[in-house]
Amino acid sequence: MLSVPELKSLLATPQKIVITTHHKPDGDAMGSSLGLYAYLIQKGHHVTVITPTDYPYFLHWLPNNSEVIIYTEQQEKSAQLVADAAMIFCLDFNSLSRINELGELVRASSALKLMIDHHLDPEDFDDYRHWSINACAAAQLVYDFIVNELEDGEFMNKDIATCLYTGIMTDSGSFRFPSANSTVYRIGADLIDLGAEHWKIHQLVYDNATENRLRFLGHCLSNKLEILPEYHTAIITVTSEELKSFNIQTGDTEGIVNYALSVNGIKLAAFIIERTDKVKLSLRSTGDFPANEICKKYFNGGGHRNAAGGFSDENLADTVTAFKALLPDYKTQLIQ
């Protein structure tokens, strides 16, 4: 592994750097990536953020968003940038499978690979790792990387603060999840002091829905929510036809699973959605219930204890049946 002094030495001279993050990036993925970008360009590096896919429209306001390259839209350019890079920062993911086809390009690259992440069980592809499962967000680790690891706190500015606050806010459930400890609040306060307009960021992310998205949410809650009281579990299922009928765009389904979890007495919530290639699952839980264990063991995925995701190659009906069939094995944990 690359040592911190070695990394500091490398970053002392301009480098060609690529920053990438996971498939269908969320607020933490884009906030941490663009926050790191805003730091590195101040140091004179040649930096490009490449995302494997598109990402929600309500994140397009982030500083330097116009500089982002989407791999699926510019594959040749992306491949060349990866091939030419001296360093590749991998943010908010710990397995190259999480960046789809881009992962094989990164794996084949001779560039140094640097992981900044907070997910369980990292794959051994990196040359440097700033990693902790106790961090509430990758953006928290980027803050720690700049301020404490590299001792470059004087380079923190409003753009960096805005991006990192967005990442921390979204991955901590607006600072309400257990992972949002006192350290996270102190970092948030520092970012506000640096210029992050916390009220405005919250408004741009959470109060920025299209009419279609709101009507789709209403449809999910009125017509698609199923409660399994004997297991303290709630399920919302959505077909690909329903996605089409509401003209659902990237990001429009984000957060819907949390409404199911908010039902009184619910300990496990599942949002199961039929996509063109696979059936995707998003799980949320409360307390010590291991949502990540279910995703890892049964649905080719993983994540955090209370927030995890996976997929199934079966059809929607069979996937829902399989999910319900495993609940008896977890009944004791669900009802305690």
From TrEMBL:
InterPro entries named among the record's database cross-references: DDH_dom, DHH_sf, DHHA1_dom, Oligoribo/pAp-PDE_c-di-AMP_PDE
Every DDH domain range: 16-168
Every DHHA1 domain range: 245-325
PANTHER family reported for this sequence: BIFUNCTIONAL OLIGORIBONUCLEASE AND PAP PHOSPHATASE NRNA (PTHR47618:SF1)
UniProt protein name: Bifunctional oligoribonuclease/PAP phosphatase NrnA
Species whose genome carries this gene: Pedobacter gandavensis
